[in-house]
Write a structure and sequence with these properties.
CATH architecture of the largest domain: 3-Layer(aba) Sandwich
CATH superfamily of the largest domain: Type I PLP-dependent aspartate aminotransferase-like (Major domain)
Strand content: 5-15%
CATH topology of the largest domain: Aspartate Aminotransferase, domain 2
Radius of gyration: 21 Å
Mean pLDDT: 96
Number of domains: 2
Helix content: 25-40%
Low-confidence stretches: none
Length: 367
């Protein structure tokens, strides 16, 4: 697809410069059309058909890897990680290893286990906000049950070496869990190569869906190690007098989800397949090359690690050196209809494949 065709699918591009996909993707017309079509069936349900959950699973597996039956449909990243945290049979003295300053969806579910006697160990990050696998390896031992990390850090855009960290986890018999909320749909993910056991993500960021859509991937290798927490009618065979869980990740599904949102989300996933994740990632690096060069030229403080290109993504954090001045700059950008995020003490810029070099140049000129 040509850039003009792509931009025509995102109406926000006519009214603003949207550099905020790490917060959420703007609604595109394909998803909106599918949503409106679904809602029309609610107005007139004659001939209405039930949502085919398998369709979403197939699309996710084509985009992210694994088998369709290894995906459970859930409503958010936090729900997915929470199901795993509560479903593992932790013993007093077990531990979980995560990097410090992870997103709360990959922190709170583990901290809640401390009341069971589970220790949460925080691996130190470097001064430049990068993470070395060795920092995690120092904390992993024979009582480590889970090593959990974000594939892309929300507060820096850093991309850790999942392959190395997965090997560290498996060397001690721990599960390797990856939060892909800021990665899925933006960078290539290789479940097999990176030895990912469990993966949780949401639809409303780089996967072009809306709030309330998400997934939990659990490899068939480890699915028996995690028990369902709140099984509903879609988790097991429909017997009235016994509970016979499905033997795959469907056992983690509960009851009714927002069918309209999941139905519409399929159109976003199909668009990503059409464009291609490899192409999206290459555009992300091209965009951030331009961004970082422009920020350096203007002498801003770049928070995102930039030493290694393979550790970069579509997310760039920077600040002015003064929080008050950074806030003032953020407000100026919003007034100029350049949409970014004030994340902590930094401005977070996160363009996507529908953005142009001219838009990024306008952003740089404004700052």
């Amino acid at each position: 697809m040509k850039i003009d065709q792509i931009r025509s699918l995102f109406p926000v591009t006519k009214d603003a410069i949207y550099l905020n996909c790490a917060s959420q993707s703007p609604l595109n017309t394909l998803v909106n059309d599918r949503l409106q079509a679904h809602l029309r069936t609610e107005l007139n349900p004659v001939g209405k058909k039930a949502l085919n959950r398998d369709n979403t699973r197939v699309l996710l597996s084509r985009l992210l890897g694994g088998l369709p039956e290894e995906y459970a449909l859930v409503t958010s990243t936090g729900i997915g990680i929470g199901i795993v945290a509560q479903g593992i049979d932790f013993k007093k003295g077990d531990n979980v290893v995560i990097p410090e300053r992870e997103h709360w969806n990959n922190t709170f579910p583990w901290l809640q286990l401390e009341k069971k006697g589970v220790e949460v160990r925080f691996a130190k990050i470097n001064e430049d906000n990068s993470i070395e696998p060795e920092a995690i390896e120092k904390l992993v031992d024979n009582r480590t049950r889970v090593v959990s990390i974000a594939a892309v850090r929300f507060n820096s855009g850093f991309r850790p070496n999942l392959n190395a960290i997965g090997k560290i986890a498996h060397a001690k018999g721990a599960l390797f869990l990856v939060d892909v909320a800021q990665a899925a749909g933006m960078i290539p993910i290789n479940i097999e190569q990176d030895q990912i056991d469990v993966m949780a993500g949401c639809g409303f960021k780089w996967l072009l869906g809306m709030h309330g859509t998400g997934f939990l991937y659990v490899s068939k290798r480890v699915v028996k190690l995690i028990e369902p927490v709140i099984p509903g009618m879609f988790a097991a065979v429909n017997h009235f007098d016994k509970l016979s869980y499905y033997g795959d990740s469907r056992k983690f599904e509960t009851g009714t989800i927002a069918y309209s949102l999941f139905d519409a989300w399929a159109a976003g996933l199909e668009l990503l397949l059409d464009v291609g994740i490899k192409n999206i990632y290459e555009k992300a690096i091209e965009n951030t090359d331009f961004l970082i060069d422009g920020l350096r030229e203007k002498d801003y403080s770049i928070v995102t690690p930039t030493k290694k290109r393979e550790e970069r993504t579509a997310i760039v954090h920077f600040n002015t050196g003064s929080f008050e001045a950074t806030k003032t700059l953020y407000k100026k950008l919003i007034e100029e209809r350049v949409l970014v995020t004030l994340q902590g003490e930094n401005i977070r810029v996160s363009p996507n494949f529908f953005n142009t070099k001219e838009e990024i140049k306008t952003f740089l000129d404004l700052i």
